[in-house]
Amino acid sequence: MISVTLNGEPLELDLDPDTPLLWVLRDHLGLTGTKYGCGEGQCGACIVQLDGEPVNACQTPLSAAANHSVKTIEGLSPDGRHPLQLAWIVEEVAQCGYCQSGQLMTADALLAKYPRPTDAQIDAAMSEVLCRCGSYNRIRRAIHRTANPESQNG
Amino acid sequence: MASPLAELRLSRRALLRIGAATGGGLALGILFQARAEPESDTQDSSQHNGILSPNAWIRIHTDGRILLVIARSEMGQGIATGLAMLMAEELEVGLDQIQVEQAPVGSAYTNHLLGEQATGESTSIRDAWQIMREAGAVARQLLIAAAATIWSVPDSRCSARRGRVHLAEDPRNLSYAELAETASRLPLPPAPKLKPSDAWTLIGTPQPRIDSPDKVLGAASFGLDIKLPEMLYASIARCEVIGGRITGWRSEAALEIPGVLDVFAVRYGIAVIAKTSWAALRGRDKLELSLRPSANPAADSNRIRDRLQGALKGRAAVARKDGDVSTALNGSHAQIEAVYEVPFQAHACMEPMNCTADVTTERCDIYVPTQAQGRTQATAERITGLPKDRIAVHTTFLGGGFERRREQDFVVDAVELSQLLKRPVQVVWTRADDLQHDFFRPMSLHRLRGGIDAEGRLTAWFHRVAGPSVLARIAPDEIRDGIDPCMMAGAADLPYRVPHQRIEYRRADTQVPIGLWPGGGYDHNSFAAECFIDELAHLADRDPLQLRRNHLADRPRHLALLNEAAREADWDKPPASGRGRGLALAEAFGSLIVAIAEVSVENADIHVHRILCAVDCGQAINPQSVRAQIESGVAFGLTAALKGKITLTKGRVDQRCLSDYTPLKAHEMPEVSVHLVASDAEPGGVGGLAIPVMAPAVANALFALTKQRIRTLPIRLS
Q1: How far apart are CA B255 and CA B273, in angstroms?
Q2: Measured between CA atoms, how close is A122 to chain B, in angstroms?
Q3: Which residues on chain A are in Cβ contact (under 8 Å) with B258?
Q4: Which of A82, B177, B292, B403 is placed for a possible disulfide with B516 were both Cys, Cβ 3.0 to 4.6 Å?
């Protein structure tokens, strides 16, 4: 049995410890918000947080999450009202939406590290997540909006 | 593909469908169908038996729900919001008052510009513009008539607003829910009464996307998110050599993977069947395959280039002939010739190809991120032999489409396997499958010749396109006199007035599977034509913007847009030191775009700092969506201009993963400004509009900065 804290809830999993976290979430736990895009750690669509750090879930074996805390898009907020989610809606970030869980989880980890990130810090962090729809400028605006709510004047 | 919409409008008529809605209550459905469909007339007479036809656009339930049916695939372009806006505008409801549902397969849902129920080629809004508004208007007229009947007043005293009908100078009002039953018994109005544009409250205003809330929750359901009871997963190893065959395989190691259930050959390769996605993917990695290469010479980039180079000479089909180019060139003050090269490109949707099918002896259900519901049903019909009415296509959200999801290969995979295994099956493609077994944007070569007179005016324009035919596989009937219109878009319809023009196509097929790509022929042809006109401007010592203006003098929309772009970009002032600016224009999908790129070069690295797009897409339905689509096209177009290239060696695609074929990343995205010009012309398409102008705008900017002509994509500086 492998113990993981998933989105704040303790969980005991009786699974092959080599199984990538991506497929633990998708195949076994039905948490399909985390997406399969390449399985090679190159697209970032499957990024989740492991103890607050963004990791590619497809490259993270379940064993690496044992006794650690995992947060997925489903755990970002109980009601979809996380400041990033609200900013994402205001800035109309998502197009096809497939990469957006990875984008949001990466952005959330970025803001935990740099509450007011510079454009360079945003670029460095967000370049890990590919978006074929080109939503990057909106992502940047949504992150700034979240980081600087007072400067938006609503 | 395209059929004239005008014909259709004359032949359409409305049918009213009434019946019990699933979940109780009465529903009112409005259907528009072609007159020439007798089948619908027989259905018409049996419609009052309490079964609601699914072929409806609008359903108003007595419990207050207002359901709008969306017949186009949502792949990020915001079409669900756009179509809902068209219906809601005329129905007089707010977007906050409606729910949307994805349409099943049905003749009412045909995209008349594509001739099938499909989404693509920037057609959705153009196709829906009239029909969806008429659907909303007829429903509104019926609801008003119902209220007038109940109150015994003339219709003219009633008006509709936010889902209620109000009586003039009277506090009385009734909700659509209260009116639905009465409305469903009324005769149809003689004609839809569309609102005048000055009464619009939704059309032309920026509206938030209706799918955003689900997408930020991770709750939007894509193809791979489908999970059915008893469902199995499959990964299929396809032959990596184009034209080759898998002649043998060893499955022992695969079958040892826990969860792998079976390994066997199917039409497109060797299928590994498993209890989970992960087991299927792992098992497939363990397969040992023996291949037999194609009997033909292997597909190879160098060999293909040689072939296309050969096709730049010799005879060709003529797509357009104005005047006499040879004589005009000979008599010109100065002339130049150039060859442009555009490589194969992958679609690289972020969601790899996939499909889930549940085939029984009774019926077939397909859950699929598809752009082509009609063909999906036909594919399943062919495989299962089931009648169409027992084959349902459930369209999920699409994690990118880009025309790749018009194809049927992944549907065949899933339907065949489910039929064989008698269980629901989800077929998962790997990223390598997706890149290696794409239907690529074709490679093409372009030979252009142009001549100018002593006043610096273009007198002669010759453009030969050499490349494989896209339509030969998809729609061979549309190839006429050797011209594949899909390969010639943007060349044969050059927007500039040049007295002597000759546009040719020389078909040169290769073994490489090719298909539609966003922007279509405009992509490769605009690169060649818009760069070449820059070369001619340089030859004539004219400003490239002014030279274009000179040849668009009688085209006010083009001129206005060029002027708008020039003004916004301060074109008359030189760019900042170390920066270069380049311009490109395209007329496509009923829309116009002018892009101005600003670039710099640092140690041979190209930086695109800013892209300005001036857009005339006629009446914008949702300006917010138009802007987002243009931004999206900038990213997609820059990927193709600067990064993307599919090459082949000894029959194999060299690119296997996203580090071999990398879409534009966040730090490479330029600042994008979109300037929409106000227009009340018919709406044009915008999905693929910005893509064709990216490569030429950047290449022309690089020339302005470095004096190096870029004639090959992706762009590399020497």
Answers
A1: 9
A2: 9
A3: 16
A4: B403
In percent, how much of chain B has pLDDT > 90? 86
Reported as a single tens digit per residue, the pLDDT across B386-414 is 999 999 999 999 999 999 999 999 999 99
Helical H segments across B639-682, by residue range? none
* B 517-576 near A (Cβ less than 8 A): none
Output the pLDDT for position B29. Answer: 62
The interface predicted TM-score of the complex, written ipTM, equals 0.98
B239 to chain A, closest Cα gap in Å: 20
Best residue of A98, A136, A140 to probe chain B, by most B CBs closer than 10 Å: A98
Terminal-residue alpha carbon distance, chain A: 48
Residue B296 — very low, low, confident or very high, per pLDDT cuts 50/70/90?
Answer: confident
Q: Kindly report, residue by residue over B252-272, the tens digit of the pLDDT.
A: 999 999 999 999 999 899 999
Q: Quick check: B56 pLDDT over 80? A: no
Contacts of B663 in chain A (CB under 8 A): 130-132
> Which strand ranges, in their side-by-side order, compose the sheet holding B58-60?
B12-20, B26-34, B58-60, B66-70, B98-102
What distance in Å separates the CA atoms of residue B22 and residue B375, rounded to the nearest whole number? 27
Residue B607 contacts A where some CB pair is shorter than 8 Å = no
Same domain, A51 and A91: no
| Alpha helices, H only, B276-390 | 277-285, 301-310, 325-330, 373-384
Q: Do A85 and B431 touch (CB under 8 A)?
A: no
Nearest to B658 among A34, A43, A124 (CB): A43
Nearest-CA distance B705 → chain A (Å): 26
Q: What is the pLDDT of residues B66-81, one digit of tens each?
A: 999 999 999 999 999 9
Written as one string, the DSSP assignment of B239-279 is PSSTT-EEEEEE-HHHHTSTTEEEEEEETTEEEEEESSHHH
CB atoms within 10 A of CB B636: 30
In CATH terms, B5-216 corresponds, of 3.20.20.30, 3.30.365.10, 3.30.1050.10, 3.40.50.12780, to: 3.30.365.10
pTM, full prediction: 0.94
Question: Between chain A and chain B, how many beta carbons pairs sit less than 8 Å apart?
Answer: 177
Domain ranges, residue A61: 2-75
Q: What percent of chain A has pLDDT over 90?
A: 95
Residue bearing tokens 């039409």: B267
Query: Would the CB atoms of A16 and B276 count as touching at under 8 Å?
Result: no
CA distance A69 to chain B (A): 19
